[in-house]
Amino acid sequence: MPSLLHRPRRLRRTENLRALVRETRLTPDDFILPLFACAGTKVRREIQSMPGVHNLSVDEIAKEAAAARDIGVKGVILFGLPEAKDEIATGAYAADGIVQQAVRAIRKSAPDLVIMADTCLCEYTSHGHCGVVRDGDVINDESLELLARTAVSQAEAGADVVAPSAMMDGQVGAIREALDGAGFEQVAIMAYAVKYASAFYGPFREAADSAPAFGDRRAYQMDSANEREALREAELDYLEGADVLMVKPATVYLDILKMLREQFDLPLAAYHVSGEYAMIKAAAQNGWIDEQRAMMETLTSIKRAGADIILTYYAREAIKLLRSK
Ligand code: PBG
């Protein structure tokens, strides 16, 4: 028998030994729960491709947020399904828009919860694109104005954080300037800095009714093949005043997350998106995978790669599991 000096297995022998040498630890503070606000009252409509996730009317979203807070969720990010859509996304920046109403209601039902608002136009435009469309093109600088207006109205409603996700050039700078101009210098910007054009947003587009009516988002969201460009996108948002940088989706872009962790000192967020959630759910429902273990392994990988904040539809389940240990 050869004598081995190094035997890594020694420290894997018992659960307590493993806990002592564990390098990455998820905590209940790590998660943000996405919620979808819709019109009506007492509406709780499950999204078919996202079991456990619902479209919620304002009264219901206020309850859902308070219940999440009671479990230990620290923050939510809000998306809206307006009653009407038009060419210029009026519903996104209306003072009584669906997200603005939801922010106010949650501020009452769960005052200490961090309230983030997704700042985009695609849920509110009749064509489903993230900006103003002319002759089949998304016009960058005109879209900036509407995005800035949206962010200010979300801040007026009481959002702590706005999260621009339209991937328009200069959106962070335009929003920072508009927020400061309106007296909201304390409202933070979590920039979807590196957002790839991804098949994994499929279920979200059902949830938010935001699939583009023509074409796709490849003329503004990033090409999944690009890494150096991610650095450039993050650098621009950093220079424009982002408070938090986000990578999205999470698990198929862990290399990008890790690169940003090494290059930037800002807090880093990762969005574990609808398709990433739906894949685990679907496999679990078929009995092909252990849902809890797959969930925790996935979330751990995102944290290990460098995320400080994880946006996930699994926020509640993960926190419950962590607290039960
Ligand atoms: C809005 C937006 C999208 C997501 C977050 N913000 C959809 C998209 O860009 O098509 C996706 C979130 C998810 O899939 O969970 N632009």
List the helices and strands and how they pair.
Blueprint: H1 15-20, E1 31-38, E2 44-47, E3 50-57, H2 58-71, E4 75-81, H3 90-93, H4 98-109, E5 114-119, E6 132-134, E7 137-139, H5 140-157, E8 161-164, H6 171-181, E9 188-195, H7 202-207, H8 228-239, E10 244-248, H9 254-263, E11 268-272, H10 274-285, H11 291-304, E12 309-312, H12 315-323
The chain binds ligand PBG.
The site of ligand PBG has 11 residues, from helix 7.
Short synopsis of the structure:
With 325 residues, this protein is α/β, with parallel strands linked by helices.
Description:
- The structure is a single chain.
- This protein has helices at 15-20, 58-71, 90-93, 98-109, 140-157, 171-181, 202-207, 228-239, 254-263, 274-285, 291-304, 315-323; strands spanning 31-38, 44-47, 50-57, 75-81, 114-119, 132-134, 137-139, 161-164, 188-195, 244-248, 268-272, 309-312.
- By secondary structure, it is α/β, with parallel strands linked by helices.
- It has one domain: TIM Barrel, CATH 3.20.20.70.
- The strands form two sheets. The chain has an eight-stranded parallel β-barrel, surrounded by nine helices. Strands 6-7 form a two-stranded antiparallel ribbon.
- A hairpin with a 2-residue loop joins strand 6 and strand 7 (137-139).
- The chain starts with 14 loop residues before the first helix and ends with a helix.
- The mean pLDDT is 97.
- The site of ligand PBG has 11 residues, from helix 7.
